[in-house]
Amino acid sequence: MQDKTHLVDEITGHRRMRRNRKADWTRRLVQENRLTVDDLIWPIFLIPGTGVVDPIPAMPGVNRMTVDKAVEAAKEAADLGIPAIATFPNIEMHLRDETGSNSLEANNLINQTTAAIKKAVPNVGIITDVALDPFTSHGHDGILRGAEIVNDETVDQICRAAVMQADAGADIIAPSEMMDGRIGAIRRALDAAGHQSVGLMSYATKFASGFYGPYREAISTGGLLKGDKNSYYINPANGTEAVRDAAMDVEEGADMLMVKPGLPYLDICWRLKEAFGLPTFAYQVSGEYTQIKAAAMNGWIDGERVMMETLLCFKRAGCDGILTYFAPEVARILAKR
């Protein structure tokens, strides 16, 4: 028999990587990671009123919505199989003050929405944030005293807000304000109020990023912000510090960890999953969403392909799920496959 060994066989030691790529069925057979609807969390924006769906110019395809429309969105999520939604309020300016006191109103916009959704669509998970930036007149995530965001007073307030959110029916509290000690303090407050079953998804590594711009437009805080958030968000240059921050949250009782933003910090996703083994999530933030949408609208990229590729990359980096504004669009695509 004629020896058909090729030079390439000798070079590779008869190991050819393309064997497993030669056909669609082999590629499917050996695929390591898959994106499913179970991986999706849908962030939505809330506004006061009734019957209003308000498009956000900087986030094409994303809207602010009143409570009744948020209930409709939750029903849509349930129909699509999306496990959970995350809510973010855009309250009236006259309700915002130096301390974010409206966060402590039991019937504020975020709690009204939670209660309404839980009544209408009880099988959809609701994730709420206790950061104060939607409620403050200065746009910071905590209480501003002089030029300082005060840590301990802010923690006291967000603990009270977290209990109220749990009272309204929130399933998971996801504190994003990055104050020291907040996870342990919220856990104790929830347990003392009888909310042992309410989970904590820690924004374990929230970076001082330039990718948040459209979000700040969505909740109307961009024009309010005094200074920056560098004294409490993590420096984008610091990976080891981020892991240390997450480790403290794990010790304090976090049930899940989140990395925010997402795609620029895939290394952090991987490091947290490897280090702690907790359910790990990434937030594909507004700037990431808008980049893809804008490029697609200009015909510069295949928007659907890039959207799906980025979400799959989060899975490859160890994430158990992704908070993404693409959630309903992706769920519809996955349902057709």
Automatic annotation (TrEMBL):
CDD domains: ALAD_PBGS_aspartate_rich (cd04823). Pathway: Porphyrin-containing compound metabolism; protoporphyrin-IX biosynthesis; coproporphyrinogen-III from 5-aminolevulinate: step 1/4. GO terms for biological process: protoporphyrinogen IX biosynthetic process. InterPro entries: ALAD, ALAD_AS, Aldolase_TIM. The keyword Lyase applies. It comes from the Bacteria. It catalyses: 2 5-aminolevulinate = porphobilinogen + 2 H2O + H(+). This is Delta-aminolevulinic acid dehydratase.
